[in-house]
Request: fold
Amino acid sequence: MNNSIKVKRAERDLTQQDLAVQIGVSRQTINAIEKGKYDPSLPIAFKLAAVFKCRIEDLFTP
Amino acid sequence: MTQKNSLLIIGGSGLLVVTTINLIALAFGLPGSQLFTNSWLASWLAVYMVFIGFFFAGIGQSLMKRQTESDEGIIEPKFKRYSKRMIVAFLLYVIAIVASHFLLKLSDSTVWHALIALLPVTPCFLMLRAIQTLVKEMDELQLRIFMESCLFALGWTAIGCISIGFLQFYKVIPTFSIFWVFSAICMLFGIGSAMTHRRYQ
Reply:
């Protein structure tokens, strides 16, 4: 699954660590999600969408 | 900032300490200086495998950290707490192994021997508690890596046990202590952890 988390994170000038703290996961998890190595669960996807103030579909594309 | 890795530190320092103690034992001709032929040194070799497991798990963690973009030196507090608990438990384990070796000679009672022989098991409860606490605090990716590493260790240990069991049944190889199974699990968990971390880096 592709995602635009890295782009949206850069737009908001957030580090992986900043985002990880806001979501409540480890920095490695954010890194793995951004690289498409790991597809997050629905609760994490909702939290990411809430941080970036967008819909889940805007963040993740199949 | 210099990258720190608690698992690598535990594994590396553990291997160093155990090697030093074994070299001293060999140099001074302490009982059981013959590798593999004596249960005492065999138990030390089993301890080696446990630390090798930590070492590989640490390598896995390092591989993952290398790919992240910032604040590389940070270790999550939960891993710091886990490392401290494990270091204490391992120190007690090593002390208990050495102590039990000498305490066994104090009495010929079977009950005494049983109690002293089980002395090194008590710190294992602390290790179990440390692992349980860490698992409860893991996020979903860390939990997934942990589960995949466990599965790797369980699977290969099962295959190893069955293979060795058949070889022993047909007397191709001699029987040996079941004690090695736990050490093999630790070592395989470490290798599995390194491989799984690499997949998600």
Summary: The longest strand of chain A covers residues 2-3. Strands of chain A lie at 2-3, 60-61. Chain A has a mean pLDDT of 92. The first helix of chain A runs from residue 5 to 11.
